[in-house]
Amino acid sequence: MTPFGEAMRRLRAERGVTQRQMAMAIGVSPAYLSALEHGNRSEPSWEFVQRVIGYFNIIWDEAEELQMLACLSRPKVVINTSGLTPQATKVANKLAAAIGQLDVPTLEKIEALIDSDALASGPAADIGQPEPPADKP
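Below the sequence we write its predicted C-alpha cells.
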C-alpha cells in the first residue's frame, strides 16, 4: 500500500464509501482505485488527486497533505546517483536492498534524518511538494 492509497482508504472508511461508489462518482474503474490503494499503480496524476479532493470535499491542510502523499506514492522508485559520490551510490544500493526488511521505527529514523533541518535547505526539501499542473495551450 502507498501513503496515498492508505489515506484514500481511510477517507473512504470514515465516510462509509465503497470503492465502487467512489469510482463511479469520479469516473474511474473500481479496479483502478484498488490498484492505487494497494501500490500496484504509479503515483496518481494531479487531475486525479483533485477529483479525490473534490469528491471528499476536503480543503486546506488536508488537501495539501493528500497532494503531498500522492507525490510520495511511487511504488517503484529509481534513484539516479550519476555524478554523485561513490558513497551516495553505495548508500542508495544498500537502502534498495534492505528496505523490505526495515521495521517501522528504523524507517521513521531514516525519514527524520532526511527531513532534518540540516537537509531542509537542500534539494531534499522539495521532496513531496506537488508540482503545479502544466499550462495547456
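The helical segments are 3-15, 19-26, 30-37, 46-56, 60-71, 86-98, 104-115, 117-120.
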